Amino acid sequence: MTAMSLCFMFSAVSLVLLHSSSASRVIFMPFPITSQAYIHVQMARAMLDRGHQVWLVVPDIMVDKNVLNTTGISVIQFHTGYSIEDDIVDELFLKSYLAEESMPFSVLCERYHVIAHNILSNEKLFQQMKAVHADLFVFDDNGFIAKMFVVFPYRLEIPFACVDFSFEPFDRRTAFSPATVPAFRSELNQHMTLPERLKNTLLFLFQLMYRPPWHYEDVVARYAPEMPYVSLDRLVARAELWLVHLDPVVFYPYPTLPNVKYIGSMAAAPPDPLESRFQSFMDNAKDGAVVVTFGSMVKNMPQNITDKLISAFLKLRPLKVVFRFDVTSPDPEQIMTSSWLPQNALLAHRNCRVFVTHCGKSGVYQGVYHGVPMLGLPLFFDQHENAHIMQAKGFGTTRDIRKISDQELADTIKHLIEDPHYKQNITKASTLFRELNGVPVKSAAYWLDHVMKYGGDYMRSSGQEMPLYQFLLLDVLGIIGGTVVVLLMLLICCLKYLCRRFCKTKFKRE
């Protein structure tokens, strides 16, 4: 073997050893629904590209359905007892909304309780996580059960980062004013009248005081009794980093802290190549195509709504339609139906003219990223708020899927194509978004890598170390209020004393 060959081999081995020594281990645990898991898969791939090892923790039902491409990602499975998509979203939220009925809240609470308990008490799952020897734990910090996943990194005694989809000032200890920041799901904008500011303030107070019945503030005592007790609220505030799916282009400017990164949506990214059947269909749509999807959680709808949608699409000729729904197309040349479709890649196609969407955050961001006007038909969760903001920004319009007729639906889609203002507004937003955020998942990977290398202590506010009552100055206000009350009582006593003396003196004189 020549000296040059030996030198090359030595260099190669050195590079491998250097790469291995710098690689870290990251566990990703999304809220157990497909759309959230997809975001974590994207982050996991970006971390793989940076040379790290990654694990994805998802329900066994999601693995069985094979809805995620986890090539190169180690998968840890767990059992939930209920499927959130089938037994909660479809059976409770969707059916109640479409039937215009109240949702059975007690059933919702019972199912969330079962899912939370089955996950948090799963000792086999914890031991699998422990065997990873992870350097960082990433989970969804949302208003459902995922916030309580913080108990896993606490038990593992490793740093953690949170992924969130809304402005949450109390968990993150962010100072803000209800006069300028709309509350979550308020459907208000930044410029509020006096009644709207009052409504917004009351909504924030409600958000501060309300705790969902399936949230256990004593989650540590219940599921990590071997660890020192800390409340759920204070434990989540210890996050090294928050990655938030918001930005000022698509939503509003929000007050923030150095360890809270508003990065847009990690679903907004350059497209993968289209499969041949989709590529051929879109290429042949010379007059334009409409992409229609209600997300991964909506499996079916009442027959009358399905018929209404199909009837509206038939009225759009010569436009073609790609419809994510498991139904038979009455005209496959004009309407392509599929139980799955590559949404991001279809929106990126040059012939895509309108995006009909339920207004999930990921979908709205993909529509903006590719500059496609949107028709929002929101169904549940934060979709109504997203649709309201999308319309207020001039990126499209929104309608009620229960009330709109097939003709109105077809006319609205045509209006979005014919009125140039929608395309102009969303094209400008697309340019701004790409300029400011680049590819958001790469930003997310950068910051996760950064806190593993350097830690996040230098970005943390002292407010994130305080109990919430101290951050809100309730103790200070209590002292001030108590002092004012004591002074008023003393003043009243003095006035009473003087009044008695005056009256007594006057009586003697008389």
From TrEMBL:
It comes from the Eukaryota. It catalyses: glucuronate acceptor + UDP-alpha-D-glucuronate = acceptor beta-D-glucuronoside + UDP + H(+). Its main location: membrane. GO terms for cellular component: membrane. PROSITE patterns: UDPGT. CDD domains: GT1_Gtf-like. Coiled coil: none annotated. This is UDP-glucuronosyltransferase. It comes from Littorina saxatilis.
